[in-house]
Amino acid sequence: MRLDAALRRALRTLEQNDVGSARMNAETLLMFVLGCDRAYLYAHPERKLTGDEENRYNATITERATGKPAQYITGHQEFWGLDFIVSPAVLIPRPETEHVIETVLELARAQSFARIADVGTGSGCIAVALAKEFPVANISAVDISPAALEIARANAARHQVEKQIAFGESDLLAALPKELFDLVVSNPPYVGESEADKVQKQVREFEPKVAVFSGIEGMDIYRRLIPQARAALTPGGWLVMEMGYSVEQSVRGLLAGWENIRVTYDLQGIPRVIAARKPAL
Ligand SMILES: C[S@@+](CC[C@H](N)C(=O)[O-])C[C@H]1O[C@@H](n2cnc3c(N)ncnc32)[C@H](O)[C@@H]1O
């Protein structure tokens, strides 16, 4: 079968199964199977797929048609300009989480960060991006999921920052020392179980529940993380957390007694990242 015909057929299958951005998905998965870029697809519509290529392409399209995210099929997602390995054990890194890195970079203009904790590291995307930005910082990256930590370690090695990051299994900050860190950063699970039906099907059915949901209202992890972060930080240290679209006021309420609270908005104008400073002595 010709490449253009295979693409047309895949597009039809994805559209019939209500997969959003069907063309982009059909092309991404063909690029994955052929190991080529988009320019090649457009330049060689007449290229014949081998029997093996056609079978593999059909298999990926069938998987995608079930709602499985393309990133779990290709095993890759870009974050902060870096390529990350992903599997169904980890949340797929989101573009809005880059605002966490941007916020930390802004804070770092006034204060240096030598000891950083990343809580709920998942794929390791935040820890690895920060290791690249702060090459002399020591980073502790924890997660409650051993399977996620394996992926995070692989990503740190892939980007040659494994010596800078100590990975460990921990329930939030329980396994880490107190009063040591000058920055605690986290993109915690923050979707309420009561909002599960509003979440996209591919998130609800394919991404790890422990990475997405946090109690009925989405606040359970914040309630535990904020006091733990206060204990883990040195005086004057910063806590930087990603937030869901509706929790800003509740999270601010939990930050009573912290200083310099500041919010970063995402490109849609949603309050996405909150930062707060533990009072200096
Ligand atoms: C929203 S994901 C974020 C992953 C990654 N940091 C990112 O930004 O893409 C939340 C992560 O927190 C982890 N997690 C959930 N509950 C936790 C807990 N009690 N202690 C430590 N990690 C937890 C999940 O396993 C998941 O990897």
TrEMBL record:
It comes from the Bacteria. The keyword Nucleus does not apply. GO terms for biological process: methylation. It catalyses: L-glutaminyl-[peptide chain release factor] + S-adenosyl-L-methionine = N(5)-methyl-L-glutaminyl-[peptide chain release factor] + S-adenosyl-L-homocysteine + H(+). InterPro entries: DNA_methylase_N6_adenine_CS, HemK-like, N5-glutamine_MTase, PrmC_N, RF_methyltr_PrmC, SAM-dependent_MTases_sf, Small_mtfrase_dom. It holds the Pfam family MTS. Residues 111-196 form the Methyltransferase small domain. One of its GO terms (molecular function) is peptide chain release factor N(5)-glutamine methyltransferase activity. Its EC number is 2.1.1.297. Keywords: Methyltransferase, S-adenosyl-L-methionine, Transferase. Methylates the class 1 translation termination release factors RF1/PrfA and RF2/PrfB on the glutamine residue of the universally conserved GGQ motif. This is Release factor glutamine methyltransferase. The gene is prmC.
